[in-house]
Each structure stands twice: as structure tokens, then as C-alpha cells.
Amino acid sequence: MFLSTFEKQLDGKRRIVVPQDFRAQTAGPFDGVFCFPSIEADCIEGGGKSLFDRYLSVIEELEFGDPIRSALEVSVLGGMAQLSYDTAGRITLPEILCQQFGLTDWVVVVGLGDRFQIWSRDAFQAHRAAQREVARDGLATMRAQQRAAKIAAGFPKTGIAG
């Protein structure tokens, strides 16, 4: 799993050192990562062959010509780059992706389990704050629903209005 958050400096050639733990997760026949513009946020999404296979499987479940399939093909497959590690464990990010997401000097690499994201440092700070609020509100809603379900389960309906 890709875990934790790392700040990394992007050098003049758009290279970053991929955290060692992340490189270990992507070991296999292709020594590198697959990266593409994230569908859910303004950042680069990446992962190993298993992430690529997962997206391909989702795409192939949809009928040829389905507008969602076409959108995923363009967004994921059309935007994807296979990035190999150099001897120092670095990848070179495509210029187009760096321009699209404002990646110029310091970037943040965020592990999300089966995938990771690469953000500009400023954009990630704002995103993380917003995500904390969503998580906090969502957890509170889930807990309230669980409490309500327990209360309802404790008072079976007898058909008598009370």
C-alpha cells in the first residue's frame, strides 16, 4: 500500500525521487509507475501495474461507445504516461502534467492505499483542509446513522402507536 505524505523537490528537469516504500510497491516487470491527470482532483494520480489494470478493467466493463467509457479512455488512458525509475529512484514528470497542475518546485506525494497523488504544495494544503472537513462531517453523519439504527433495532415495531 502507498501510505503517508512526503514533500519532494522537483528539479529543473522535472524529476522527483519516489519514496522507497512506493518504489517497493511497484516492483515488477515494469520498473516504474503509471501516471495520469486525476479524475477526482487537480493533481497527478499514479500507481503500479495493479492500478493500471484496475482502471482498464473498469473501462472494459462498459460497452464500446458508452460516453462514460469514452471519457475514461480519454482521461485515463489518453493522459497516461509510463514513467521508469532512473538509478537514483527518480521519475521525470511529463512537462504537460507539470504545467497543468502548476508543479514547479516543491511537490507533495500522498499515498492513498492502492494509488498515490502528486500535488503542488500550496494546492495540497488547501485540498487537505477541505478533505478533513468532508471526513469530519461524513464520520459524524455515519455515527448518527449507526446510533439511529441501534435505537431502532432496540425498539421493534409492535404495531401499537406509542
> What share of residues are in beta strands?
15-25%
CATH class: Alpha Beta
Distance between the termini: 52 Å
Number of domains: 1
Radius of gyration, whole Å: 21 Å
- Main-sheet strand order equals 1-7-8-4-3-5
Briefly note the CATH topology name.
Answer: Chemotaxis protein chec
Helices, by number, come to 5
What does the overall shape look like?
globular
Mean pLDDT: 91
Helical residues, percent: 40-55%
Flag low-confidence runs.
Answer: none
| CATH homology group | Transcriptional regulator MraZ domain
SSE string = EEHEEHHEEHEEH
Largest sheet: 6 strands, antiparallel
Q: How many distinct beta strands? A: 8
The name of the CATH architecture is 3-Layer(aba) Sandwich
Structural class: alpha+beta
Give structural notes:
The chain has 162 residues and is of the alpha+beta class. It has a single domain (5-121), classed as Transcriptional regulator MraZ domain (Chemotaxis protein chec). It has 5 helices and 8 strands, in the order ββαββααββαββα. It has helices at 20-25, 49-61, 67-77, 95-101, 121-154, and strands at residues 5-9, 15-17, 32-37, 44-47, 81-84, 90-92, 106-111, 116-120. The chain has a 6-stranded antiparallel β-sheet with strand order 1-7-8-4-3-5. It has a two-stranded antiparallel ribbon with strand order 2-6. It is globular, with a radius of gyration of 21 Å. The model has no long low-confidence stretch (mean pLDDT 91).
